[in-house]
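hey so i finaly got around to running the thing on Arrestin C-terminal-like domain-containing protein from Mortierella isabellina. pasting the sequence first so u can double check i didnt mess up the copy paste, my clipboard has been acting weird all day
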Amino acid sequence: MQSEIKIDLYPEFGLMMNGEAVYAPGSIFEGDVTIKTETPLQKATLKMLFIGAENIRPDIAAMSGVFLEQNPFFAVRTMLVGKEGPSEIAAGTHQYPFAIQFPMINYPPSFEHSMCKCSFRLVAILQVTDQPRQYCERQVRYIPYIETNPLKSHHTITSQNCSVTLPSLSYVPSDEIPISYDSSQHGISAITVKLRRRLSYGVEGTINHIDEYVFQTETKFHEPVVRGTTYFELPEILTPSIDYSDCMAMSYTLEISLKRSKFLGCAVQLKVPITIGTMGPGIHTPTELKPYKKAKPGTPSTRNTVPSFVPRIEYEDCLPEYDECRLPDYQVV
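ok and heres what it spat out for the 3d tokens, dont ask me to read them lol
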């Protein structure tokens, strides 16, 4: 019987988004590799790898004359068992902890599409003499720091005697966007708001585009209205806008359609490019943060441009675990 191997991440690390831990530049995350075996494993080693890479579909890469469809950001490793040579793992269940810290580098975000993807994955490899290697993988979700800069004044666009006004041109997922509309000559019977995402992908000058509608809403009025405000809530899970990846770019546009009551079948179309960020309005990125393209591995500062395995954090000074049946016994200093 082969051994069982799995990777677990501790939930107390990272930012929880939609029930999943998400990590950013500078984040530390911890976990362990669990090995369960019914018999002792002789001359065993357990290796842990952390790999970040962009991938473009092979046929797309070939059209560009590029035959390597994977563009790695980094690949780091450590030995959890067998640092000094193969060791014996006794029968039973064993946990081998690890901790990893991201550098202050704005890598492209975790993203997966049929044409391209960006992934960060942990790989555990158990090697036992005279036995096939065993592998276990675990995806790690990563988001970069993308600022959302507030405007000094609202942004207004006008077309065919209709106008819409937005308070900002940059938002974060789950934001509710107030969209004010005005039709000075003819009443509006319906408003449709769509969020369009453009994915640009390719390498070596061969760029393709895919436009997809991520979310949309429609508001209909019983009586035509001249002006008012509608609210458009962004989805909670939304890949941020990026333009610094080597093989893909992500941009967003709000498409607002105003249907006027006296013009059946004809609506005024207004388009507003917006930025989807990861930081609240006015919050700036850390001063030590480096753009990915300016901090690629292979430079003299490589040690600071790739993730590193670090000592685990010890919680010696934590308060006692809360028990709802009684108050914790806190030591008075």
